[in-house]
Amino acid sequence: MTTILSAHAISPERPTVRHVHYAASGNWITDALDDLRRAPLASLFYGVLMAVMGYLLVELVSGHFHHGVMVATGFLMFGSLLAMGLYDISRQIERGEAVDLVGSMVCWRGNFAAIITFGLIVGVALFAVAGLNNLLYAWTVGADPANLPDTAAQILAWPAGQKYVLMLLPLMLLALAGMFVVSLITVPVMLDRRLDPLSAMALSVRAVRTNPLACALWALFIVVFCIFGFATFCIGLALTMPLLGYASWHAYRDLIGDAREHATLDVHAG
């Protein structure tokens, strides 16, 4: 007698986390370059838009170090939401569809409530970090920071400013690391599979926990690309942001699979 048992009887639509090679981010960037080649005009549109936005943000906080820190932090924390249109373009290319720039700009309509909710979660997190930053600045530098020197050079040359920076760095790193973990594939999975934000965030945490080295290397790529973009007076963002957006989509497709991939058949002869 032969009995065939399907593992767990899970719906094949249920997303699961894959193990990937620690250097998988190299493949994600290679695939992103291919998307860039296939959709040059749409990529240029989003790239220029993000470069202009980055430049305006930099100008807004120019000469105010502690505000600039929060702008940079907010840019990174909201990065996955800003790249939604790029995710959709990668999805269109993957499906063999013609690139629809206008459609990519309204891709959020398919799971509007979930995406808005996630945006609010990110906003609350950023607001909390900004509050801690202001408290820390007032405690270390002065009670009225608006009347104190606040350029990066002045802060770093000042003992109180050095204390502020040394205490600020762990806070910012913790905030960014936490946001990276809960948002690595959250927005792509909400767009593609229409999950609620909490389920998508939990899936993102599992993806990072399952592939810590690969995800750490990807986080390093993101930081380096963003630093390059801002260091070139935001001109570089026109290239790095589309690349990061497309690569993030391919990271999602590589890290997340379906339960059918894990279904096994146990055959018992009797």
TrEMBL record:
Pfam families the record matches: DUF2189
Keywords, sorted A to Z: Membrane, Transmembrane, Transmembrane helix
Keyword Transmembrane: yes
UniProt organism field: Plasticicumulans lactativorans
Superkingdom field: Bacteria
Protein name stated in the entry: Putative membrane protein
Transmembrane segments: 39-58, 64-87, 108-130, 164-191, 212-239
